[in-house]
């Protein structure tokens, strides 16, 4: 990298990013090739941040090859076209191109940062990675070893084991119940042909979202995207149906020799398209998402000293959503921590939240929103995410209005509707005392 390019890259890293309000000018453009792009022009520094989100993800991979989508994504920058891994890395370094890909349950994401000065060359190198990855034998074996090492490490990590167990328990017949990395047996089956098929299955313009932020005009952005993606197919696949939750709930105990037990309590959640979604966001913040002030922290940690950390979470995918809580406690006291969480679930369901709790939650949620976009790369990623979820281009600046519109009646209505202690799937990893596997009932 020459001094000018290095200086530009350093300046990009140090430049204060525009706040969410400054990114209000999201331009929805369509390329000559028919690809929709959301663009925020930011000419302050000569760089471009790009996010591509290809729909489908690991949910479409064969069960016997679980983990292939993740491995494929990790190999996209490990040689392409006539460039082996070392030559490709040298070419990217020479252009100051930084990019990577990751596989999720519903999408494969590609993120890139490029200098305006070398934009054409960077786009060509990125195009090569997306359309002609080599999947050389030595690179595949390195990737396989890394993935198996990660799987083995997760097998001794209480949090990873708990997450894997509750997904498998809630979605026993659905790809959402499988680990993204697969297991040792499925990863061992992955060969070059499986990786090629995974790329063809995942990198498709039929379900694509694109966000760009940086020193580029609408016309330049349109030309860039068409040049980058023109060689990818555009296949309209039938959408996968909603994921089905397991009909029964059991306490599941995963034995692990550890001084503490890790517990997850999870139930069906609420989707983005539900009219009560933002009321649920506010409610969950009061319940356990609000840090030290949350009800779970006050009751489980402050009042009883059962844990150092307890929290709740809302998780959403394309075909399902969950609401849950997580806690770690001594093996001798985790049963009590779980009981208190259940009590708080029921208490909020019965009595709702107070006006003060509502105001505090809304103040935090609206104040923290701009802080989530502290770089152009994060803004580009958010734009692609919003597009993929069917949100409007101005969501970045209108989201806080939706939070502010939530009323006390809204929150208490959704608490009564959503919180169902009897539907909690409970998973405990460790050697918990005073807990026995029990049937928790049907949905």
What does this protein structure show overall?
The chain is an alpha+beta fold. The chain folds into two domains: 21-229, Metalloenzyme, LuxS/M16 peptidase-like (Cytochrome Bc1 Complex, Chain A, domain 1, 2-Layer Sandwich), CATH 3.30.830; 248-434, 2-Layer Sandwich (Cytochrome Bc1 Complex, Chain A, domain 1), CATH 3.30.830. It has helices spanning 3-14, 68-75, 85-95, 119-131, 137-154, 158-170, 184-189, 192-202, 218-229, 277-289, 295-302, 334-351, 355-368, 376-388, 395-404, 408-418; strands at 27-30, 36-41, 47-55, 98-103, 107-115, 208-214, 248-255, 260-268, 310-316, 321-330, 425-430, 439-442. Strands 1-2-6-3-5-4 form a six-stranded mixed beta sheet, sandwiched between helices. A hairpin with a 3-residue loop joins strand 4 and strand 5 (107-115). It is globular.
Beta-strand content bin: 15-25%
Portion in helices? 40-55%
The name of the CATH architecture of the largest domain is: 2-Layer Sandwich
Q: Which overall shape is indicated by the principal axes computed on the Cα atoms? A: globular
Q: How many whole angstroms does the radius of gyration measure? A: 23 Å
Q: Could you spell the SSE succession in H and E letters?
A: HEEEHHEEHHHHHEHEEHHEEHHHHHEE
Strand tally = 12
Spatial strand order of the main sheet: 1-2-6-3-5-4
Structural class by secondary-structure content: alpha+beta
């Amino acid at each position: 990298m020459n001094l000018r390019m290095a200086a530009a890259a350093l300046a990009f890293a140090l430049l204060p990013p525009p706040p969410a309000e400054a990114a209000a000018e999201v331009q929805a453009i369509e390329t000559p090739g028919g690809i929709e792009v959301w663009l925020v022009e930011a000419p302050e520094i000569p760089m471009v941040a790009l996010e591509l989100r290809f729909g489908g993800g690991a949910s479409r991979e064969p069960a016997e090859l679980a983990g292939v989508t993740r491995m494929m994504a990790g190999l996209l920058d490990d040689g392409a076209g006539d460039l082996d891994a070392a030559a490709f890395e040298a070419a990217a370094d020479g252009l100051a191109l930084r990019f990577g890909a990751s596989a999720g349950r519903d999408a494969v994401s590609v993120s890139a940062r490029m200098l305006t000065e070398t934009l054409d060359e960077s786009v060509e190198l990125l195009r090569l990675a997306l359309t002609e990855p080599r999947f050389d034998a030595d690179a595949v074996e390195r990737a396989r070893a890394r993935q198996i090492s990660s799987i083995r490490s997760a097998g001794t990590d209480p949090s990873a084991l708990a997450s894997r167990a509750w997904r498998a328990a809630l979605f026993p017949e659905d790809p959402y119940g499988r680990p993204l990395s697969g297991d040792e047996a499925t990863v061992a089956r992955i060969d070059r042909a499986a990786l090629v098929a995974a790329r063809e299955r995942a990198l498709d313009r039929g379900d694509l979202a694109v966000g760009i932020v940086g020193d580029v005009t609408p016309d330049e952005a349109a030309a860039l995207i068409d040049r980058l993606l023109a060689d990818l197919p555009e296949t309209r696949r039938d959408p996968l149906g909603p994921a089905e939750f397991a009909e029964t709930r059991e306490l599941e105990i995963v034995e692990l020799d550890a001084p503490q037990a890790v517990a997850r309590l999870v139930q069906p959640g609420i989707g983005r398209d539900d009219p009560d979604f933002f009321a649920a966001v506010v409610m969950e913040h009061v319940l356990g998402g609000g840090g030290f002030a949350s009800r779970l922290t006050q009751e489980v940690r402050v009042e009883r000293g059962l844990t150092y950390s307890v929290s709740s979470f809302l998780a959403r995918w394309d075909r399902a959503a969950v609401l849950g809580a997580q806690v770690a406690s001594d093996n001798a006291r985790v049963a009590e921590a779980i009981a208190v969480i259940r009590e708080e679930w029921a208490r909020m369901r019965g009595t709702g939240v107070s006006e003060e709790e509502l105001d505090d939650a809304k103040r935090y949620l609206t104040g923290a929103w701009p802080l989530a976009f502290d770089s152009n790369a994060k803004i580009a990623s958010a734009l692609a995410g919003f597009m993929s979820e069917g949100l409007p281009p101005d969501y970045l600046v209108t989201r806080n209005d939706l939070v502010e519109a939530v009323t006390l009646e809204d929150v208490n209505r959704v608490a009564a509707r959503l919180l169902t202690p009897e539907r909690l799937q409970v998973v405990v990893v460790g050697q918990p005392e005073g807990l026995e596997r029990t049937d928790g009932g049907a949905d």
